[in-house]
Amino acid sequence: MKIATFNINGVNGRLEALLEWLEEAEPDVVCLQELKAPQNKFPAAALEKAGYGAIWQGQKSWNGVAMLARNADPVETRRGLPGDPDDLHSRYLEAAVNGVLIACLYAPNGNPAPGPKFEYKLAWYERFLAHAEDLLATGAPVVLAGDYNIMPTDLDVYSPERWRDDALFRPEVRKVFARLMAQGWTDALRKLHPEERIYTFWDYFRNAWGRNAGLRLDHLLLSPNLVGRLQGGGIDRDVRGRDHASDHAPTWIELSDT
Fold first, then answer.
1. What is the pLDDT of residues 190-248, one digit of tens each?
2. Which of 34, 188, 234, 243 lies most in the core, judged by the most C-beta atoms within 10 Å?
3. Which residues pair with 103 in a beta bridge?
4. Are 217 and 150 in contact (CB under 8 A)?
């Protein structure tokens, strides 16, 4: 079972690129973030033609998350994080696919920090931490996949000293990620590549792609009962280098059937 997360940065504007990658990579499940499309503008028909059932939560111009399943329909279990009914941002979607519960998340950026946006990010993560703990308590096999907007360690950023005060790398958010790990989750890509400097995002500015000045923002976390099924994983870096690409690259893992 191949599960991928991909911040598409505009699903309609990059639909051709998305369909090309789906045909090449043949992931079984894809978590998409930053759709930047209202609910009624999601390209469900084109994805269905490509062999993917989909659920999605759109939002005009901003945010938006979706989950695709190859030759299947994700069985939705939750839309939006619990704990704040006034938070209408489209940032969390959860569904069961082939016996695995998968969460698709798009965490707030939080910049500028400090400030209201950073406070919202920390509050959002408190709700996410509480829900992640509840998911673990179910005993179900769970994958938490998405754009976390956190670089957990110095290995996840090309120039750590330049990012110390950024909302993606401040001590507060790295502590949040550490608290998540302490619940019992496993960072799948880091388990597979414990000492490598790996990135999933390269900014459009300052020739970041050409200089390989990247960040690792996209993570797939596994519940303890899935760690033994982890067979492989990686980042489709070449997708970032194509014309009209997202600033993120698809990040994926493979799980054995048993």
1. 999 999 999 999 999 999 999 999 999 999 999 999 999 999 999 999 999 999 999 99
2. 188
3. 94, 144
4. yes
Mean pLDDT of 116-124: 98
- On whether 34 is known to bind a ligand per the annotation, the reply is yes
Peptide bond into 114 cis (omega under 30): yes
Q: Give the H/E segment covering residue 257.
A: none
Q: Is 248 annotated as a binding residue?
A: yes
> Could you read off the pLDDT of 37-55 as tens digits, one per residue?
999 999 999 999 999 999 9
187 labelled binding-site residue: no
SS3 113: coil
- Active-site positions? 106, 147, 248
Q: Given its phi and psi angles, is residue 139 left (phi above 0), alpha (psi -120 to 50 degrees) or beta? A: left
Q: Domain 2-255's class? A: alpha beta
Domain ranges of the chain: 2-255
Rounded CA separation 256/258 (Å):
6
Does the annotation flag 131 for ligand binding? no
Cross-strand partners of 93: 79, 104
CB 144 within 8 A of CB 185: yes
Adjacency order of strands within the sheet including 230-235: 52-57, 65-70, 29-33, 2-7, 251-255, 230-235
Q: Report whether the peptide linkage leading into residue 112 is cis, meaning its omega lies within 30 degrees of zero.
A: yes
pTM: 0.98
- Residue of 92, 108, 219 lying closest to 155 (CA atoms): 219
Average pLDDT estimate for 20-32: 98
Q: Are strands 201-202 and 186-187 parallel, antiparallel or unpaired?
A: unpaired
Using DSSP, state whether 168 is helix, strand or coil: coil
H/E stretch holding 94 reads strand 92-97
Average pLDDT over residues 70-88: 97
